[in-house]
Amino acid sequence: MGMLLHGKSLLRALFTRTQRRLLGLLFGRPERSFYANELVRLAGIGTGTVQRELARLAATGIVRVQRLGNQKHYQANPDCPIYPELRALVVKTLGGVDPLRSAVHGLDATIDLALLHGADSAALASPGTPLDLLVVSPDLHRDRAQPVLDGAGQLIGRRIRWLLLRPDRFQSLWRDDDPRLRDILAGPHTVLVGQLPAKT
Questions:
Q1: Within the chain, what is the greatest distance between any pair of CA atoms?
Q2: Residue 101's CATH number
Q3: How far apart are CA 97 and CA 89, in angstroms?
Q4: Which of 13, 45, 83, 188 has the fewest beta carbons closer than 10 A?
Q5: 24: number of Cβ within 10 Å
Q6: Helix, strand or coil for residue 5?
């Protein structure tokens, strides 16, 4: 986890929040293009801010723009001189984290904790590797959440395997030092929503 956290700190030092979100989306799925409103929705940032940043990225050649009908589509530019390095940096540090975080924030429920676990930087860089998610919520309905998480999985090209726990069950497992939960938290993990409670 240390390498992943170090990479995130590096990315924060090099790029603004908007740039990180857009680069994570565009370079996380370089084989596909996104229209501007789609990037606004997925990034969870204001339209004007996203459009200004997309214009900058396009002007520098980091992304390419193609007009399809009335819409501009944006895609990571493989002809950019720093494409391999930028792609590697984004994949190793962000992988599917930002799109998955946006999906979790978009769930119609109270989320006490959402935790991506078992994914070190190598796993995040491996497109075929499933991503494991732990969600703690008092009112999340699996049948409503599944399509949202499936959509996030399609966006980042990963299968999302997720475990849903109610808060009382999570607290019980946490207090009792449950082996499965201990293994989840002992390995590499990234908190997407909320924070781990302090043990009492």
A1: 59
A2: 3.30.460
A3: 13
A4: 13
A5: 26
A6: helix
- The lowest-confidence range among 7-16, 19-28, 83-92 is 7-16
17 vs 44, 111, 121, 160, CA distance in Å? 11, 22, 20, 24
CB 197 within 8 A of CB 171: yes
CB 22 within 8 A of CB 54: yes
> How many structural domains are present in the chain?
2
Contact (CB, 8 A) for 140 and 165: no
Which residues 6+ apart lie within 8 Å of 27 measured at CB?
76, 86, 87, 90, 91
Q: Are 182 and 104 in the same domain?
A: yes
Q: 178 and 102 in one domain?
A: yes
- State whether residue 150 is helix, strand or coil: helix
The two structure tokens encoding residue 125:
């860089």
CA-CA-CA-CA torsion sign (94, 18, 106, 147): negative
> What are the beta bridge partners of residue 194?
113
Cα(103)–Cα(142) distance, rounded to whole angstroms? Answer: 14
Q: What are the phi and psi torsion angles at 131 (to 5°)?
A: -110, 135
pLDDT in tens, 27-54: 877 888 999 988 888 777 889 999 999 9
Taking the whole predicted model, whether its pTM rises above 0.90 is answered as: no
What pLDDT score was predicted for residue 5?
Answer: 43
What residue has token string 């390095």?
Answer: 85
Last residue of a domain, one of 52, 74, 93: 93
